[in-house]
């Protein structure tokens, strides 16, 4: 497994001989592996430029998000194709985006559970979904269904206002019996989104999600929840707080979702509040950067070598060189925090904000899977002298997540087409390996 990205190595001559002082290389267990599994509403994002007359013809309200049935979506798509108005088409879904990015970063396997059209023709939306998904994402457990897959039309009008037409298709029809227990049991983490938990009674994907969560809890697999949008959380924040407390290990959100969940307008304060319900928090805050909050045991915490930062909490990053742990794994749990400004100040021109948070979460999941993989191969390593959740320190995970977000913001697609450029190991990493 690459982690995270290619490493630059220094070679000493003669390169054909082993260093007699070096420790023997560990035997690698090829059968062992670390992967992430996720459940998603599989859909394709279609972006087009239209005039207001087009929106009126299709009964769409400018600037709003509306559900349309399959026939209406077909008519809409046909006219867009006839007018050559479509500018971009991407495989979508927050979990699908995250798993794709994880597999690109790790160059390793992830597994997607969801629904896919049984019959796929060249050029169809299902075909485009598959073409825009990394070959490292295992799609063999998708549930086949007749009919169209989910489609989300982003229609940019004359004024630049975005109007959304969403055709669910079969994206919410994942059945509980199509969630394999052994796949969830062997995963490094189970990734879900808040969208899955607001479906109606006749849409089985919510029950499938709850079954997957039950399997994850049974086998001590971390459950990772990404919140989706502010509106979903603002409808019933107390319900979400209880759900997170009972089921979620890692929580990912942006500053608006964080405010809706906790009532705190300051991202660090919101992340701190969320630690009452979960073990690790990732909060993206737009131009303010990225915050992380978690737990570490007093006996293994590490002080930062970076300047101390003040915010909602004084000198909050004092122990950001610590590795995150589950609270229940700590004898004396202490809260740890880290923050990073946008990489290089952020892109000169932001191409698309959609997917930046998913990119950051993919980096965090890569770090968690790397920790599982390393523990499988070298269980006696000092890296595992405690039951850590992450491979790297909170500060280093922040740095990695921030870099991936930059890469996504700098392109139009929410899905990475390649891994990150080569980088040198940081001083902080060397500090950790002492």
From TrEMBL:
Cofactor(s) this protein cannot do without: Mg(2+)
Reaction(s) the record says it catalyses: inosine + ATP = IMP + ADP + H(+); guanosine + ATP = GMP + ADP + H(+)
Pathway(s) annotated for this protein in UniProt: Purine metabolism; GMP biosynthesis via salvage pathway; Purine metabolism; IMP biosynthesis via salvage pathway; IMP from inosine: step 1/1
MF (Gene Ontology): ATP binding; guanosine kinase activity; inosine kinase activity
Top-level taxon of origin: Bacteria
Domain Carbohydrate kinase PfkB: residue ranges: 61-299
Alphabetical GO biological process terms: GMP salvage; IMP salvage; purine ribonucleoside salvage
Keywords in alphabetical order: ATP-binding, Kinase, Magnesium, Nucleotide-binding, Purine salvage, Transferase
InterPro entries associated with the record: Carb_kinase_PfkB-like, Carboh/pur_kinase_PfkB_CS, IngK, PfkB_dom, Ribokinase-like
Binding-site list for GMP: 40-45, 93-97, 198
Record function comment: Catalyzes the phosphorylation of guanosine and inosine to GMP and IMP, respectively.
Protein name (Swiss-Prot/TrEMBL): Guanosine-inosine kinase
